[in-house]
């Protein structure tokens, strides 16, 4: 299941890849190829939060309890990551998906007030920027950035790399000047201080290679006409 999502994320980017800038070592050989000016992305456009989105502070939610239709439906996550629901009080929402928050609310309402409560949660306004983390990480998903985050910090949001990950092969996909672009990074060198820890922006897609998808990763990098490569991989 994970490898299928991984291939899909990379495949979509491969179809749109382009480049600008200076020569660096190629991903799958020693040849030179052009890299891009991998700077800040284009301003994000408004979008509905995907199902995997993890709720962030100040996000706005619609919470509907079927058996209690008169309860206020509009909720905003506070700075501590909580929402306040009548009858059950504060519920921690930050870091959960909408489905996970539904489960938590069903449990709370079921403890005292309702039998088999039905709860529907929808993220109506994802205030924080979102980043998609996929591939060989322990918890792939869509995460709120809530401010500037580095690549290492974003990998930590996904609970780190899994045991089959290649830490020297992490790709970041980004839209710059209307074009989909990509850069490859070596986390080993970043952790040693041999390379800077790059900033990750909202709407970036971060993909870590795993042993089961090695050939896919290399094929996608080669298929992009020219890619920013910040390390030889």
How is the CATH topology of the largest domain named?
Outer membrane lipoprotein wza fold like
Number of helices: 5
Helix amount: 10-25%
Q: Give the averaged pLDDT, no decimals.
A: 75
> What order do the SSEs take from the amino end to the carboxyl end, as H and E?
HEEEEEEHEEEEHEEHEEHE
Describe what you observe in this structure.
- With about 230 residues, the protein is α+β, with helices and mostly antiparallel strands.
- The chain folds into two domains: about 1-45 and about 130-230, Outer membrane lipoprotein wza fold like (Roll), CATH 3.10.560.10; about 60-125, 2-Layer Sandwich (wza like fold), CATH 3.30.1950.10.
- The chain is about 25% helix and about 30% strand.
- It has five helices and 15 strands.
- The protein has helices spanning about 1-15, 100-110, 150-155, 185-190, 215-225; strands at about 25, 30-35, 60-65, 75, 80-85, 90, 120-125, 130-135, 140-145, 150, 165-175, 180-185, 200, 205-210, 230.
- A six-stranded mixed sheet has the order 9-8-14-11-12-15, with helices on both faces. A three-stranded antiparallel sheet has the order 4-3-7, covered by helices on one side.
- Strand 8 (about 130-135) and strand 9 (about 140-145) form a beta hairpin.
- Helix 1 (about 1-15) runs parallel beside helix 5.
- The longest helix is centred in the N-terminal third of the chain and has 15 residues, at about 1-15.
- It is elongated.
- The relative contact order is 0.23.
- Residues about 5-35 and about 225-233 have low confidence and may be disordered.
């Amino acid at each position: 299941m994970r490898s299928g999502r991984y291939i899909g994320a990379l495949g979509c980017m491969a179809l749109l890849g382009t480049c600008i800038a200076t020569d660096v070592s190629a991903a799958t050989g020693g040849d030179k190829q052009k890299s891009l000016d991998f700077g800040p992305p284009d301003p994000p456009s408004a979008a509905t939060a995907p199902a995997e989105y993890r709720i962030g502070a100040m996000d706005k939610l619609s919470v509907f309890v079927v058996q209690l239709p008169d309860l206020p439906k509009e909720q905003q996550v506070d700075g501590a990551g909580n929402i306040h629901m009548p009858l059950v009080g504060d519920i921690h929402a930050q870091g959960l998906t909408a489905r996970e928050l539904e489960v938590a609310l069903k449990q709370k309402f079921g403890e005292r007030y309702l039998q088999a409560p039905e709860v529907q949660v929808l993220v109506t306004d994802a205030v924080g920027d979102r980043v998609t983390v996929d591939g060989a990480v322990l918890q792939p998903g869509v995460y709120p950035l809530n401010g500037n985050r580095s690549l290492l910090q974003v990998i930590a949001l996904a609970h780190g790399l899994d045991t089959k990950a290649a830490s020297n092969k992490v790709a970041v996909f980004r839209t710059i000047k209307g074009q989909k672009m990509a850069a490859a990074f070596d986390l080993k060198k970043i952790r040693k201080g041999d390379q800077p820890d790059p900033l990750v922006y909202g709407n970036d897609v971060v993909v870590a290679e795993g042993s089961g998808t090695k050939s896919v990763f290399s094929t996608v990098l080669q298929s992009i006409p020219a890619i920013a490569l910040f390390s030889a991989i």
